[in-house]
Amino acid sequence: MKDFKPTTVHEFINAATEESQRIMLRLKKLIETTVPDAEGGISWNVPIYKYHGILAGFSLAKKHVSFGIDTLTTEMREILKEKGYKTGKKTIQIKFDQNIPSAEIKKLVKEQARLNEK
Q: 20-31: buried (b, 16+ CB within 10 Å) or exposed (e) per residue?
């Protein structure tokens, strides 16, 4: 996907490996059902959802999908680490063989949407 320039979230997902598509499709659905007015698109060559500003996004790495959001707190990072997820300052790495931490991501997306509305 290095030289690929997708123009839609669907194009990005469809061009990815099958094992990563499962995770990205679930993230896409989770974001879209949590904030139905969010608009998905491509920014920085990856899927980004916007709702009164940047809401959340995801990207593909060699062995995981990285979910990014600004509202990832230290407390939430600790909860996710206890569940086996690697986190960064604003990212959650979801390995291809892991389930998505849906409840935590939904909470983060709702909080980001609330902050963006201000």
A: bbebbebbbebb
pLDDT over 90 at 1, yes or no: no
**Bridge partner list, 86:** 93
User: Which domains does the chain carry?
Assistant: 9-112 (3.90.1150.200)
Q: What is the pLDDT of residues 25-47, one digit of tens each?
A: 999 999 999 999 999 999 988 99
Closest CA to 72 of 29, 28, 109: 109
Taking the C-alpha atoms of residue 55 and residue 57, their distance in angstroms, rounded to an integer, is: 7
